[in-house]
Amino acid sequence: MQNSVSWPPAYQVQRSLRARRVRLRICRHRGLQITIPARFSFKRIPEVLQENKRWIEKNLLLYRVAEQSSSLPEAMDLQAIGEVWQISYQATENANLKLKQQAGNQLFVSGDLRDHDAIFRVLRRWLQKKAHLCLIPWLEKTSEITNLAYERAVIRQAKTRWGSCSVLKCISLNAKLLFLPPILVEHVMIHELCHTVHLDHSRRFWDLFAKFQADSRVLQKKLRQAHFTLPTWLDA
Length: 236
Description:
By secondary structure, this protein is α/β, with parallel strands linked by helices. The protein folds into two domains: 11-68, no CATH class; 75-235, CATH 3.30.2010.10. The protein contains six helices and ten strands. A four-stranded mixed β-sheet has the order 4-5-7-6, with helices on one face. The chain has a three-stranded mixed β-sheet with strand order 1-3-2, with helices on one face. Strand 9 (163-165) and strand 10 (170-174) form a beta hairpin. Helix 3 (116-146) crosses helix 4. The two termini are 20 Å apart. The model has no long low-confidence stretch (mean pLDDT 90).
């Protein structure tokens, strides 16, 4: 359940009479730009993409984070639980940031608003608590329905994994699951609960998984793309 860039990514190609070799760069508003020499064949572009896949994926993801990290979020759309939380801000002389949860799904952040990274950390701490209140009982219910028992559950905010299960049957769930549709959250939970029986991804694991979700392969594909729907400040 790793984060990844949709492949192949969108790109633009321009031919240059001065270029002696292929050049790749990430441009604002235009994404991946490929400059090729005058006699370079367009048919070789897929080859160039594949040879530079790691660099392209890494830099596209970094660019998306940098592009949006300067703006403060105005809301959190927590699809998993059907809640939208509006976020308002007030600059004060107090250097310490404070977050208050108010009626009507309102979050109020006050303090020194110049430090955006600090604001993101405050919001992530709130999200961590919210996820613990919502996801742990949800996992318990799913465990009862599937009759797949676990020993302990924790909430984390990993960058790439939606969930994990240890040898001791400790299930870890990502707080970012709150931003996903309920069907994908259940998909992750069932996936990890099945790991309490089979820690690997063997045929036995997938056979067990199929008993609870026949369309698990389709959901797995949607889950891989779900990272791109997340607010970038979550990893800023």
